[in-house]
């Protein structure tokens, strides 16, 4: 068996890996919190998608390959297959997104969270071992079934905890603590899976490994990281701006921003359509003059009724 080094650059690799896991989890939990407050399904899905890229792309996949930069086999060159490496990214983001969509809609429930954690955990396992399959060595790679099973259990537990945090925690302090726990769980899963592998060198004269050198992986990793961060930041700013200018349902807020202009029409309000108050009507009819109420019009004199035809004539007394 060949010697395997997991910390070629000392403590820098695990520290960088943990910081990426913490930062990705922190941003993802913040996005999940905004998704819970969204009032429309489309905006909720947008925040959950941003959270999937933050947790799956930054907190899991970037952590994995940041830690893998410290992996080295002194007796064999280490290379990476670019296609399998990118496929592991797809597994990570896609399954985290599915898990967030499951727990992000409808009522919370233990069964729903466990099912989503199982799906997401399976995707994290697929991400890790697909990335490991992308390693090219002049050797045979063997895995310990016990440690592989342990890494799978840690991945499922970490995913379930992450999804439960995503629908439960609020506030900066709680989100920070939850992201710290998620960072430990994700790194623990990775290094448990790495401890499960052992290397058996090929005999002399075997073909050398082909692929991308580990340090050359920094270029696509940095490009993907930059694109992910910029995309997540722009999407989050756009979503927050839309929510600020609307009431959450796509209707512009009133009393906060300028009212939209009213459409011009040829129909103008007539004088008869204007409803006046009683005082205004009194002024308009001239019943208030000089600050004092003016006498109203004299009542009309009603004529006396005509005498009946057969009534006797009236006589005056002498």
Describe the structure.
This protein is elongated. The chain has helices at 12-37, 41-68, 82-104, 110-133, 145-166, 172-195, 218-245, 278-284; strands at residues 79-80, 135-136, 139-143, 197-201, 288-289, 292-293. The protein is built from eight helices and six strands; from the N terminus they run ααβααββααβααββ. It has a domain at 12-202 and 216-245. The strands form three sheets. Strands 1-2 form a two-stranded antiparallel ribbon. The chain has a two-stranded antiparallel sheet with strand order 3-4. A hairpin with a 2-residue loop joins strand 5 and strand 6. By secondary structure, it is mainly alpha-helical.
* Cα distance spanning the termini: 157 Å
Largest sheet: 2 strands, antiparallel
- The share of residues in extended strands comes to 5-15%
How do the SSEs run, as a string of H and E? HHEHHEEHHEHHEE
Number of helices: 8
Q: What best-fitting shape do the alpha-carbon axes yield?
A: elongated
Rg, rounded, reads 39 Å
* Low-confidence segments: 255-262, 268-273
Q: How much helix is in the residues?
A: 55-70%
| Biggest sheet strand line-up | 1-2
Domain MHYT: 9-200
Protein name: MHYT domain-containing protein
Pfam families: MHYT
Biased composition (Pro residues): 294-312
């Amino acid at each position: 068996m060949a010697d395997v080094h997991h910390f070629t650059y000392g403590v820098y690799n695990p520290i960088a890996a943990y910081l990426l896991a913490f930062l990705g989890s922190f941003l993802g939990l913040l996005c999940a919190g905004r998704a819970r407050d969204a009032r429309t399904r489309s905006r909720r899905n947008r925040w959950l998608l941003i959270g999937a890229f933050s947790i799956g792309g930054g907190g899991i996949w970037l952590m994995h390959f940041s830690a893998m930069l410290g992996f080295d086999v002194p007796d064999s060159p280490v290379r990476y297959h670019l296609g399998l490496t990118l496929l592991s990214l797809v597994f990570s983001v896609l399954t985290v997104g599915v898990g967030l969509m499951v727990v992000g809609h409808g009522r919370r429930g233990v069964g729903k969270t466990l099912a989503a954690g199982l799906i997401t955990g399976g995707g994290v396992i697929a991400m890790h071992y697909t990335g490991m399959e992308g390693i090219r060595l002049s050797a045979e790679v063997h895995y310990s079934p016990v440690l592989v099973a342990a890494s799978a259990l840690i991945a499922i537990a970490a995913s379930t905890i992450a999804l439960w945090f995503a629908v439960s925690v609020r506030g900066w302090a709680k989100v920070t603590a939850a992201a710290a726990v998620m960072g430990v769980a994700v790194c623990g899963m990775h290094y448990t899976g790495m401890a499960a592998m052992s290397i058996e060198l090929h005999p002399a004269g075997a073909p050398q490994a082909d692929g991308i050198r580990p340090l050359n992986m920094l270029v696509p990793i940095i490009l993907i990281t930059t694109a992910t961060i910029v995309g997540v930041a722009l999407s989050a700013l756009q979503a927050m701006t839309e929510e600020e200018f609307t009431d959450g349902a796509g209707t512009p807020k009133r009393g906060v921003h300028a009212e939209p202009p009213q459409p011009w029409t040829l129909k103008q309000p007539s004088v008869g359509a204007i409803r006046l108050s009683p005082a205004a009507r009194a002024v308009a009819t001239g019943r208030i003059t000089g600050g004092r109420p003016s006498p109203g019009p004299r009542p009309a004199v009603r004529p006396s009724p005509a005498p009946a035809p057969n009534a006797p004539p009236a006589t005056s007394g002498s």
